Amino acid sequence: VLDKWLYEGDLPTKANSQFFIKENSISHLSNEDLWEKKYDLLRDQVPSFISDELALKVMVTGKSINFLKEKCQEQTAILDIVDILKKAEDETFDSLIDGRVENRIREAYVVTCAHLLDVLKERFHFNEHLKAMRRYLLLGQGDFIKMLMELLYHDLERDGREILKHNLMTLMGDAIRATNARFDEPYILDRLDITLMEATEREKGWDVFSLFYHFRDGGPLSCIFSQKKVMVSYLKIFNFIWRAQRTEFILSKAWKDLQAYDRKFARSLGLGEVFHMSHALISAMIHFTRQVHYYLSFEVLTCSWEELQARLQKASDLDQLKEAHFDFLSSVSTYCFLSQDDKPLSLRYRGISDEVVRYISVLDNFYKRCEDEKLRRHNFKLRANIGDRSGEIDVAE
C-alpha cells in the first residue's frame, strides 16, 4: 500500500480503514480545494516506525502525484520515480531495521515534489505569473500605473454607479500599448482584468475600481492563487496602494494647477496670501504622500518580496510554496494596516486621503470663483470705458 501511494498515488479502497492516508469523499470539490481537502493524514494510525515528519512526507508525495495527474495532466510515468520503485521491489519488512524504508520515502518525496515544482514553474509559468501580479496588482509597473491613472481619470471622477467596465477595459488596453507592459507575454496580459465593486450613492469610480488577475481556466495555478484566500488578499492590498497612488497622483496634478492659477490670479485679484497658504498646505500633503509611497514601495513591498523569493528558492514541495506565498501576503497586509488590530490606523489613513480629495475639490471651486471674479471685473472695466467715452458712468455699479 505504501509503495502504491508513494510511486503511483493510488489508494485502494480496502486500505482506507488501515492506511494512515484517507481520501475524503467530498462531492464537487473545487479546484481551489483539491490540494487542501482531498486527502487527510490520520495521525493515530501512523505506524510507530514512521515519524510524524516522515508521515507528512508520505502524504505530500502521494498528493503531488495525484496533483500531477489530475491538474497538470501528467499522465505518463515519471521515469525517476519508476527507477526508485524498481530499486525497492525486493525490500521486505526487514528493511525497516536498517532504515531503508525511510530513505525510500525521502527519495520519493524529493523526486516527486521537485518534479511538481518544475512543472509549475516551467510549463505553467508560476514565477512569471507571480511577478506579473507584483507588477499589476501591487502596482510595481510604474509607467503603466501612471498612464492608466491619466487615461482613467475623467471616468473614475464620475459616480461609481455610472461607469462601464468595457470603457475602462478599452482605456486599459491603450495604457498597455503605450507603456512597457506591451512587452509582457500574451498569457500574462490575457489574465489582466478589471473588476468593479458595487457602488454606493456617494462613491466615485476611484472607490470601486480594481485591477484583477484571474485564474478561471481551472488549471493548477488556481489551487495556488485561490479566489477565496489569496486573490481576496491581493484585492485588499491593491485597494490600499491604489488609494495611496491616487492621492499622490491628484496632488501632483493639483500642484501644477496651483502654479498656473497663482500666476493668473494671485496678483491681479490680490490673493497672494491665499495662494501662499495653499502652496504650503499642498507641499505638506505631497511630502506626506511621498513618505507613504517610500514606505510602501521599499520598506513593505521590496523587503517582503525579497523574503518571498528566498523562501521560494528553498521550498521543496507545494505546501511550502503555498505557505511562503500566503505569508508574503499576510506580511504585506499587516504592514499596510489591513489587519483587524490595525483597523483604527487604516481608517485614520483613509480619512486623511479623503480630506486631501476634499481639499482638492475646494481648490477647484476656488479657481472657478476666481475665473468668475476676473471675468466680472473685466466686464465692469469694459462697461466703465464705454460709459466714460459716452459720459454716462453708472456710479452705483
Order of strands, main sheet, comes to 1-2
Number of DSSP-assigned strands: 4
Strand content: under 5%
Helix content: 55-70%
**Computed CA radius of gyration, to the nearest angstrom:** 31 Å
Low-pLDDT runs of 5+ residues are none
- How far apart the termini lie comes to 103 Å
How does the helix and strand content classify structurally? mainly alpha
User: What characterizes the major β-sheet?
Assistant: 2 strands, antiparallel
Question: If helices are DSSP runs of H or I spanning 4 or more residues, what is the number of helices?
Answer: 15
- Global shape: elongated
Summarize the helix and strand pattern as letters: HEHEHHHHHHHEHEHHHHH
Mean pLDDT: 87
What does this structure look like?
- The chain is mainly alpha-helical and 397 residues long.
- It contains 15 helices and four strands.
- It has helices at residues 2-8, 34-37, 52-70, 79-87, 100-123, 126-136, 142-156, 165-178, 186-189, 205-208, 221-224, 230-265, 272-314, 318-335, 343-390, and strands at residues 21-23, 39-41, 192-196, 209-213.
- The strands form two sheets. The chain has a two-stranded antiparallel ribbon. A two-stranded antiparallel sheet has the order 3-4.
- Helix 3 (52-70) packs parallel to helix 5 (100-123).
- The chain starts with a helix and ends in a 7-residue tail after the last helix.
- 25% of the residues are buried.
